Each structure stands twice: as structure tokens, then as C-alpha cells.
From TrEMBL:
<keyword id="KW-0964">Secreted</keyword>
<dbReference type="InterPro" id="IPR019803">
    <property type="entry name" value="Glypican_CS"/>
</dbReference>
<keyword id="KW-0654">Proteoglycan</keyword>
<keyword id="KW-0449">Lipoprotein</keyword>
<dbReference type="GO" id="GO:0009986">
    <property type="term" value="C:cell surface"/>
</dbReference>
<dbReference type="Pfam" id="PF01153">
    <property type="entry name" value="Glypican"/>
</dbReference>
<dbReference type="InterPro" id="IPR001863">
    <property type="entry name" value="Glypican"/>
</dbReference>
<keyword id="KW-1015">Disulfide bond</keyword>
<keyword id="KW-0325">Glycoprotein</keyword>
<feature type="region of interest" description="Disordered">
    <location>
        <begin position="475"/>
        <end position="526"/>
    </location>
</feature>
<comment type="similarity">
    <text>Belongs to the glypican family.</text>
</comment>
<keyword id="KW-1003">Cell membrane</keyword>
<keyword id="KW-0336">GPI-anchor</keyword>
<keyword id="KW-0732">Signal</keyword>
<comment type="function">
    <text>Cell surface proteoglycan.</text>
</comment>
<dbReference type="GO" id="GO:0040037">
    <property type="term" value="P:negative regulation of fibroblast growth factor receptor signaling pathway"/>
</dbReference>
<dbReference type="GO" id="GO:0005886">
    <property type="term" value="C:plasma membrane"/>
</dbReference>
């Protein structure tokens, strides 16, 4: 029979690579000793030449330059180094998003500050006591606008309505200072005067334009911060035990095998990293939606919502409103007296005409539209570049950090020896790792930290979608929306998705289901959640009732 000779030959061929190309002479371990020492480890116990590798638990068990202790140290080192790579890549994205937020925030705050300063500079000369005796009303308005922009829980429309009401009360008293006007009379005056639009169309027009501009501006600014925070938290997720082993095998096992100069095969590297970053890749869909939503709101800010003009001319619109009131003072006063009665003449008498005069000062607004246009253009370029961050991260790490070989290289480290790498490259995301040949991935157990960040992306995208059509939303610090819920108590995606969809949005947020258990894999939506306590109680009561009827 010829089976034995062929089997013996194959056995000889299979065992040949264990000694590499050095024949019967054991190869020197000088290169791995140098590397090991450079990593900060003691060279005590490190072999001078290759030894048998039966003791290895991660690397191939051929002849090796690594002891068990060295293998363990290299594994820990590879985990630390890979996590550092992730954080470094994340910091680059964080820096981009933070810089965009800082640029827009500085521009917007400067716009608001200039409007407020222009009001303080011009109004004393224009309105005299009409302004000086009511400075707090104006200061409070700008204070409320800033608080709203900074995401405080303020109803902007109510804040603007309150400003116009307070201003009308103060100005009416000053313009009719010869009368003794009580608080009760002012309440009546406000009800009657508002019917006759004492400030003209300015309050309605400003409320419409300012609310849209502020909603868009604060959602836009917050979107950058949320994106940066998501990257920060995801970059801190620790590697699994299986991933640590795979990274060690990728990065340091070739050194143990005496192949320090052999680069990892590109496709081999991709499979390892895609397996390790399977959960991170599942961020991609919602991440892309966030980037698209930010671009959409950026177009609104520099387009229909005209933030530069609206925010930069608030002081001018207020001046226009006061002028309307002054010009129609007699008509409005007459109608108020008809509806509320004639107030008593004040014993103090009228003060000087200074409170009624209007100076010749001309208000101007310096346009910064070009600066806004450049800001938006820069932001859109960066956001477009970041859209594919999560799914291009494996190839970026392999080519720039791990220094894998070219895709065509057939003399690279394939996890066992120097040669070609035959397995196909896995797809992106957790569900596609079920057959990953390099990393054992449990697709039924998604990382809950990352699932929580997927929800944060959905929430922020929904807010931007509302801002894009001018709708206000309750704003809270998104970094705390899911905190405290625990790793296993997060809101199921199908429920949260429905909750979000009640508000108008430019798209229906895609749901990311928590996979079903018992080996059923990943389903498209988590519609089959575990029964609630109430449902179990109801079923129990029904069972008891049924038993009673059978008796």
C-alpha cells in the first residue's frame, strides 16, 4: 500500500516550517530578545536560541523563542497597545468634532454679544429714560437667550412673550407717567393693547425667526458634543479575552516564531480587527445618520434660518418695535382707556420729555455671513469625511498602526507561518462575525455600553431632525440619558424607536435589536422581548381562574 509513504511525507512537510529555513541548526533569538527588552521586560529566562514550543497557549506550538511567561507578557502588551491605538484614533475624531463645536459656539456667542453691546451703546441716546429705567428687561432677555442656547430647560417662545409683555408694561407707564397706573390696570392694559399690536409685527416675526435660528443653533452645537462623547466612551471599551488572544497572535507571535521582519497578512489583520471591533462597527448606521443630520442643519443655519441676520439684528428689531409703540402711543392709549377706564392723574406729575424723545442714532448690524459660510463649509467637509469612521477603522488600523502587508503579498504572517492567507474577509458588524476564523465572537451578547451609545446617537439625530424643520424639543444632557440604567436595563430599541418617532423627523431611526437567545442569532427587530412582570401576573391570575372553573 502507498498510503503510509504519502502520510509519512506529508507529516515531514507539515513539520518542516517549525524550524524555518535554518535546517537542523536552532535559530538565534537575538531579535525577539531585543524587542522584549525594548518593551520593558527583563531578559532573564529569555532563550538565546529556539526551544520547543509545546508550552505555548496562543502562538503556534512549533519551535519558538518565547517562554510561557513571555507569551503572557506579550499578550498583555498587545492588549494595552491595541487599546491605545483605539483611543488615539478616537482622539483624532474627538478633536475634529470638538474643534467644530468650539468654532461655531464662538461665532454664535460673539454674534449675540455684539447685538447686546450694540443695544447698550445706542439705546441710551435713542430712548433716554425709556431705556435707562428698563435696562434689566433687556439684560434679562439676552440672559434667557444664552441660557436657552446652552441647553437649559427654557421655553424660548414663552421667554420672548414674557419680554414683550414686561417691556410693554414698563413703556406704557413711562409714556403715560402723568397717570397713576396700578398693577391691576397694567394687567388689563396688556390684554387690550395686544389686540392692537402695539409693537407692530415685530414680536410675531422675531419669535418665528429667532426660535428657528436658536433651535437649529443649539441642536447643531450639541450634536458635535454628543458625537465626541460617543467616540470617547466607545474608545474606552475593553477588549475581550478572545480578542486579546487574537491580537497577540497577530502582533507578537511572528516574533516568537523568529519572523520579526514578516508583516501580518492584510486580510488576516482585517479579520482579527473586524472580530475585535464587531460591536463598534454596529455604530456605523446611526453614526452616519448623525453626520448627515448635522450637515442638514448646517445648511439651514447658513440658509433659510439665516442665523447671522436673525441673531445679529435682535437689537434692531427691538428698536423697531419701540418705535412702533411711540408712533402709535396716542391711538393705543385711547383704546386702552376705552377698555380699562381712565386711570387717576398722578400727584407726582409728568417728568421731563427725555423719556419720550428719540435720538438720531442709527443702528447698524455688521454682517458676519462670510464667516458663517466658511464655518459651515469646513464643518460639512469634516462631517462627510467622518461618515464612514467606524467601518473603515479596521483597515485604517491595519495599514497605519499594525503595518500589515499589501493585499497581494503571499509571504506574510498568516497566523501560523509565513505564506498566503486564504480565508475570506468577514463583513462589518456583530452579526457578520459568526464564522470569523480568527476571533471567537458571541453574536448573542452585544456590548451594552456600545448599545447605549447607539441610543444616544438616535436621540441626538431625532433632535436634529426636529431642528431641521423648526420644531423645539426637550433638551437634556444626552450623556446622562442612559446612565444609571445598568448594562442590562437599557431601553429596548424597538420601544425607544417608537417613542422617538412620535416627534416629526426627517427619517425613521433604524432600530438595533438585541439578538434573541438560544442560538437563534440576530433578528431585525427585538419585537419578542421578555414578558413583563404585569403580564406574568395576569397570566397567573388567568390560570387560577381557569382551574376554579374546571372544578
Amino acid at each position: 500500500m502507498r498510503v503510509f509513504p504519502w502520510g509519512f511525507w506529508l507529516l515531514c512537510v507539515a513539520s518542516a516550517p517549525a524550524r524555518g529555513d535554518s535546517g537542523s541548526k536552532a535559530r538565534s533569538c537575538a531579535e525577539v530578545r531585543q524587542l522584549y527588552g525594548a518593551k520593558g521586560f527583563s531578559l532573564s529566562g529569555v532563550p538565546q536560541a529556539e526551544i520547543s514550543g509545546e508550552h505555548l497557549r496562543i502562538c503556534p506550538q512549533g519551535y519558538t523563542c518565547c517562554t510561557s511567561e513571555m507569551e503572557e507578557n506579550f499578550a498583555n502588551k498587545s492588549r494595552i497597545e491595541f487599546e491605545a491605538m483605539m483611543k488615539e484614533a478616537g482622539r483624532s475624531v474627538q478633536a475634529t468634532l470638538t474643534a467644530q463645536h468650539r468654532s461655531f459656539d464662538s461665532y454664535f456667542q460673539d454674534l449675540l454679544n455684539k447685538s447686546e453691546k450694540a443695544l447698550y451703546d445706542a439705546f441710551p441716546s435713542m430712548y433716554g429714560e425709556l431705556y435707562t429705567q428698563n435696562m434689566k428687561v433687556f439684560k434679562d432677555l439676552y440672559s434667557e437667550l444664552r441660557r436657552y442656547y446652552r441647553s437649559s430647560n427654557i421655553n424660548l417662545e414663552e421667554a420672548l412673550n414674557e419680554f414683550w409683555t414686561r417691556l410693554l408694561e414698563r413703556l406704557f407707564k413711562l409714556l403715560n407717567s402723568q397717570y397713576h397706573i396700578t398693577d391691576e390696570y397694567l394687567d388689563c392694559m396688556v390684554k387690550h393693547a395686544e389686540q392692537h399690536k402695539p409693537f407692530g409685527e415685530v414680536p410675531r416675526d422675531l419669535k418665528l425667526k429667532a426660535t428657528r435660528a436658536f433651535i437649529a443653533a443649539r441642536s447643531y452645537a450639541q450634536g458635535f458634543l454628543v458625537g465626541s462623547d460617543v467616540v470617547r466612551k466607545v474608545s474606552q471599551v475593553s477588549l475581550s479575552h478572545e480578542c486579546t488572544r487574537a491580537i497577540m497572535k497577530l502582533m507578537y507571535c511572528p516574533h516568537c516564531r523568529g519572523m520579526s521582519s514578516v508583516k501580518p497578512c492584510n486580510n488576516y489583520c482585517l479579520n482579527v480587527i473586524k472580530g475585535c471591533l464587531a460591536n463598534q462597527a454596529d455604530l456605523s448606521t446611526e453614526w452616519k445618520y448623525l453626520m448627515d443630520s448635522l450637515i442638514g442643519v448646517a445648511d439651514r443655519i447658513d440658509g433659510p434660518y439665516n442665523v447671522d441676520t436673525v441673531i445679529g439684528t435682535i437689537h434692531m428689531r427691538i428698536a423697531e418695535a419701540i418705535s412702533n409703540l411711540q408712533e402709535n402711543k396716542d391711538s393705543i392709549t385711547s383704546k386702552v382707556f376705552q377698555g380699562c377706564g381712565n386711570p387717576k392723574i398722578s400727584t407726582k406729575g409728568s417728568s421731563s420729555e427725555d423719556k419720550k424723545r428719540r435720538g438720531k442714532v442709527t443702528l447698524e448690524a455688521k454682517s458676519s455671513a462670510q464667516a458663517l459660510e466658511m464655518l459651515v463649509l469646513d464643518a460639512k467637509g469634516n462631517l462627510t469625511a467622518l461618515k464612514t469612521y467606524w467601518i473603515t477603522l479596521p483597515s485604517s488600523l491595519c495599514s497605519k498602526k499594525i503595518m500589515a502587508s499589501s493585499a497581494s503579498d503571499d509571504k506574510c504572517w498568516n497566523g501560523m507561518t509565513k505564506g498566503s492567507y486564504l480565508p475570506e474577509v468577514m463583513g462589518d458588524g456583530l452579526a457578520n462575525q459568526i464564522n470569523n476564523p480568527e476571533v471567537e465572537v458571541d453574536i448573542t451578547k452585544p456590548d451594552m455600553t456600545i448599545r447605549q451609545q447607539i441610543m444616544q446617537l438616535k436621540i441626538m439625530t431625532n433632535r436634529l431632525g426636529n431642528a431641521n424643520i423648526g420644531n423645539d424639543v426637550d433638551f437634556q444632557d444626552t450623556s446622562d440619558d442612559m446612565s444609571g440604567s445598568g448594562s442590562g436595563d437599557s431601553c429596548p430599541d424597538d420601544v425607544c424607536g417608537k417613542r422617538l418617532s412620535k416627534s416629526p423627523s426627517t427619517r425613521q431611526p433604524e432600530t438595533h435589536a438585541i439578538p434573541k437567545q438560544s442560538g437563534h442569532g440576530v433578528n431585525g427587530a427585538s419585537s419578542r422581548s421578555l414578558p413583563s412582570a404585569s403580564l406574568l401576573l395576569l397570566l397567573s391570575v388567568a390560570a387560577i381562574a381557569a382551574q376554579h372553573l374546571w372544578r
